[in-house]
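Possible race condition, two jobs.
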Amino acid sequence: KQLTVATSSLQGSGWGVLAWEPLGKRLIVEQVYDHHGNVGQNTTPLLVFDAWEHAYYLQYKNVRPDYVTKLWDLVNWTDVADRFTKATAATA
């Protein structure tokens, strides 16, 4: 739910990111705005949702929350689990 809210509520364009934060050894949700590098230091992205208009506007118009909800149907959980395993092993 946190990734859905973070991606849906971005002002402008960017990405919603589920990432592994090794210092606290925890999952975090981040909003990355435009092309700025405001991703947490040393975090490892595990799942990234594109919130740029080109990704959803033709089908969903300006209803970004509907688009983000549908993204969950496309997630390859095997890939996400593999990224998580590698990220957590690197900080063990």
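Job #2 (started ~2 s after job #1):
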Amino acid sequence: KFPTARIKRIMQADEEVGKVAQQTPIAVGKALELFMVQLVRKSAEVAKEKNSKRITAPMLKQAIGSASQWDFLDDIVAKVAEEKEGGKSSRAKAESDSDDDADG
């Protein structure tokens, strides 16, 4: 469940939005919850296909790219790098490289 007070504040941050009925943030919160459940489930499917227990940003990007209903998120995920073969992200590789350097 998402905090209705915060949802209301976000809605009212738009100058074109006047007063917000008490039930509106509750309905928006429920819609947000359903949206998140769908997105997480699809991302989990992608992770399972890759034999991963962790959902990564590239997996989320792949899930978003798999359905036209999420096209509005394309600009946001465009900056996310594609997942490299072998499963290690560039950050994880950099961290393991620095560990090798520390060994001497």
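The domain at 4-103 is CATH 1.10.20.10 (Histone, subunit A).
Logs attached separately.
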